[in-house]
Specification:
One of its GO terms (molecular function) is zinc ion binding. Belongs to the Churchill family. This is Protein Churchill. The protein has a single domain, classed as Immunoglobulin-like (Sandwich), CATH 2.60.40. It is built from no helices and seven strands. The strands form two sheets. Strands 3-4-5-6-7 form a five-stranded antiparallel sheet, with no helix packed on it. A two-stranded antiparallel sheet has the order 1-2. A hairpin with a 2-residue loop joins strand 5 and strand 6. It is elongated.
Length: 140
Amino acid sequence: MRRPSLNSREVSSSRKHRRIFADNGVAMCVDCVEKEYPNRGNICLESGSFLLNFTGCAVCNKRDFMLITNKSLKEEDGEEIVTYDPDLCKNCHHVIARHEYTFSIMDEFQEYTMLCLLCGKAEDTISILPDDPRQMTLLF
């Protein structure tokens, strides 16, 4: 069965949009994404949007690039937290999702996490040492 083109998706403007709310009360639209919080493995994006998961704006019915707005950077207990509303429709300014990216250093490792309705959830840990102690083998 052939999947319809993402550009031809039509949504009734009279339909109520299903929303979920982030911790800070920002509404995110689940009607605009193919899959909610897809598992992205260890791909943690500090900025940008996962357009393959974007089905189109449920308000204006267009599938276009998105605007990054309300970007903030704060540091708490040695952890850098970047949040923004990246997934704002370029045409009608409908908020699709809120993106959160964190970076911290724990012992000899850099830790990254990402959580976004559109971009997904992911985490990664990378050694800051020349030789990753997790990859070392015992010599006996």
